[in-house]
Amino acid sequence: MSIIFPFSLPTTGAFSFSSHISSTEYYQLLADADVHRAHLRDILKRAKRNNTQDVIEVVKTLEDYIPILFSIQTGIDNGELSLDSEIVTTWRMPISPSQFHKMGDNQRISGSTIVYEISMTLLTYALSLMSLAEETFQASDSDDKWKQCTAHLLSAQSVLTYLNSHPAQTYTIVPIDLQSSTLSPLITTISGSLHLLILYKSLSSAKSAASTASASLMSRVSIYALEKFSTALALLPPSLRREPIENWLQDAKSYSSGLAQRFMAIDSEAKGQTGAAIALCAAGISDLKSGSMITKSKDILSKKPNLSNRSTSNASLSKTYIKSKIKQLRLELENMESSYRNQNDKVLFQQVPDMKEVKRTWPSGREVVAPKHEWKQPASVVDWRSGLYNDQPTNQTHSYGGQGHYY
Question: Number of H helices and number of E strands within the chain?
């Protein structure tokens, strides 16, 4: 199963800052901005055209470009840089379907002012970090992958939170992908995914007999993930309804519910409450069945997806990873229920409560990984007082909230 729904990355049209801004003193700043933007445009187009994607290169290019981009905005605002003509850039929207866009052709939307360029660049950065987390989870067998995935997801969430709290109000119509109605469910989804990652680590450790987490704690972590995925589903705007992300969230919600009841059943049986354990297994099986119906009616490819291909990757990821995990968990719950019933029928003779009754006694969800502080725009690469331009931005150290506390 995946840890996050992988949206495709956007692409962007050609643009030159040097053609729109005049400055003899800061010519190198503008030239460097053009170089970084051209490289970003090239790797995004290459990924879309060739179905290959070096997410690390995308992230690195964005981290080089973003400080320069904010520095240009500061220069324009303080009058150090003069606009010769209006800045207008074009981006292909990565999240919402084309039929919901009335501002552009086939999801390509042009926006004026540098704020639009900054907003779309940051959205690309957040989606790239989400893709990097997914790629790391799928490709790495290292023990460090859990920390790396957590760090990438938390960084993506902090960038989306910044975008959500700094709406692009300098142009008339804000594209759907930059509206709060789209960003809010993504931020909430990441919170669920962070805890889904903890559950995966717990299950992986259990297989190697190295797990130290209690079933009681893991049930509450599962419930927290369930709550977040449920909230994200409720927050989805009309533009994302009946889209693969809705299927992914529904299955993630069902899987989290099934895991919660698996852990509670294990905890109940350990406490001698075999009747309750049977009811919890039955309830978990029921929830997993309801979740799997969402994607069963879809024509979904089973090929392992490439994160850059929107038309196949999102749907096939749901089929390839989530569906297989749901099937595996359902089989495990069926085996547990059979074992508990056999024990109860022969030895214990405990009453099996109604499924609705055991659900009413669920504990509250437990947040283990809290969101990190909102992303902060980088320091300017130009000392505007002295006029000095530092063309070697300081490398940022990426950390995450709660680092060292759980893993």
Answer: 11, 6
